[in-house]
Amino acid sequence: MSFPGVWAVAAIVGGCLVLSGCETPRYGCPSTRMRATAELVFGRSSDDPDHRSVTEADFIRFLDEEVTPRFPDGLTVVDAQGRWSAPAGSAVHRPSKMVMVVLRGRADDHRRLDAVREAYKRRYHQQSVLLLTRGDCVSF
């Protein structure tokens, strides 16, 4: 086959894939199972003398009042240990909670995540709540 012929075949195959709606699986995952996911990491202690820690009951109440209403399809909570270097250079170790959510793909998903983060920072006097988002192959 001549060089121009190779390009013609490639164009035809590519066109067929686009027109037929075929989707190439990403890393072996069908595109119908690719979903945006989010992990939120909440510190459970602070330097605020009036509110030194977020108890298990406090966190459950926060989930019930702030997270679950915004993400009613479900979520997973994992106990974690946060570690980082403070600006003064000392190592900080704090108990944390990680909440994992499979997002619906709605236009307001990130607004809802930000609302959860702001509510936690305000309620428990936190400087930040870590948010990680990515695309994952999801199957239930």
Question: What would you note in describing this structure?
Answer:
It is a single chain. The chain has a single domain, classed as Alpha-Beta Plaits (2-Layer Sandwich), CATH 3.30.70. It is globular and about 50 Å long. The chain is an alpha+beta fold. The protein contains 3 helices and 4 strands, in the order H-E-H-E-E-H-E. A hairpin with a 5-residue loop joins strand 2 and strand 3.
In short:
The chain is α+β, with helices and mostly antiparallel strands and 140 residues long. It has helices at 3-20, 56-67, 109-124, and strands spanning 34-43, 76-85, 91-102, 130-137. The protein has a 4-stranded antiparallel sheet with strand order 2-3-1-4, covered by helices on one side.
CATH topology: Alpha-Beta Plaits
Output the helix-strand order: HEHEEHE
Tell me which oligomeric state these chains represent: single chain
C-alpha-based Rg, rounded: 22 Å
Tell how many strands the DSSP assignment holds.
4
Low-confidence stretches: 8-24
The CATH top-level class label: Alpha Beta
Distance between the termini: 47 Å
Largest sheet, spatial ordering of strands: 2-3-1-4
Q: Beta-strand level of the residues, as a percent range?
A: 25-35%
